[in-house]
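quick one before i forget lol
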Amino acid sequence: MLEATTDSETILYRFNRLVKELLQGSMKRNTFRPWEIEVLLDIDSCDLNGSNRRETLRRYQRAVQRQMENGALKPMLLSQYLENKSARRKKKDSNSNGAAS
């Protein structure tokens, strides 16, 4: 169990470093773990715009931190985060519209 915790902490550290490099706009390394490549490709495919990109990445980073603290073995993808966020917004909207009727 201790090994899983250490691995999870290492993965979270590497994830935070990856996001920090993205936010700074420069990668300082050329070697990546397979899951990091998956995260980078997913972020690229989400096609985030300028100033919205920075805030979205920060929120995504906080969500991954919470997820990893709750026992996840690897970070969720940005596309999963955005889908979850959209689903929560739709649910909230339908609940508020249902209450108003």
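fyi The mean pLDDT is 88.
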